[in-house]
Known about the structure:
By secondary structure, the chain is α+β, with helices and mostly antiparallel strands. It folds into two domains: 3-135, no CATH class; 138-268, no CATH class. It has ten helices and six strands, in the order ααααααβββααβββαα. The strands form two sheets. The chain has a four-stranded antiparallel sheet, with helices on one face. A two-stranded antiparallel sheet has the order 2-3. The longest helix has 31 residues, at 13-43. The chain is elongated.
Amino acid sequence: xxxxxxxxxxxxxxxxxxxxxxxxxxxxxxxxxxxxxxxxxxxxxxxxxxxxxxxxxxxxxxxxxxxxxxxxxxxxxxxxxxxxxxxxxxxxxxxxxxxxxxxxxxxxxxxxxxxxxxxxxxxxxxxxxxxxxxxxxxxxxxxxxxxxxxxxxxxxxxxxxxxxxxxxxxxxxxxxxxxxxxxxxxxxxxxxxxxxxxxxxxxxxxxxxxxxxxxxxxxxxxxxxxxxxxxxxxxxxxxxxxxxxxxxxxxxxxxxxxxxxxxxxxxxx
Length: 269
């Protein structure tokens, strides 16, 4: 079975990897030509500009940790890193794999992309990474429920310290006037659980809680809803979430009981 093809039906991994090789080869050749031109200029006592690269590549006339200006291999590695980061970002989004990730996994990948800490964009690395993430979706499924529950504040009576009830209050849904990606990522974990428990496919991450709230705010509304939740937000940034399907809420509480076996029992005592 071709796992990569199964996971990424809308993207040709082989073609993407081959295009990446072609781009890197041309970058290498271009830098070779620039180096050759510089040597000719020096021999002829002509001027030659420093290799000009964007500041984002950390190579534009700035000293490295050794005190020297960026060398050819450093410049090439920096350029290739940018190519790979953009490629991984595209793959994770357009393949739909982010749909299977919980908030923690998304945050980890976003941090790696921001730091340029990604594997080379080869077909083998893509397949290995996607297979690992896809195989962990069951663990991420439950981890997302647990993380959202643990972040609830017990300062609000609506939030029950033993289980999910009919309503929950989440803090910082809005932060400095904008929708908070971190919080909506966690709400997406709950929405994904609802849909799976309801026998439906996972929702596309591009049409999750962030999109639901943002669309409503553009229309100057302070509430939004879908088949599973009604969400209302306030000036203090808090969001009040009402669950529409209590049968599915009880299934989430089974996940809590699995990891905290004494929690629901404590509520009864």
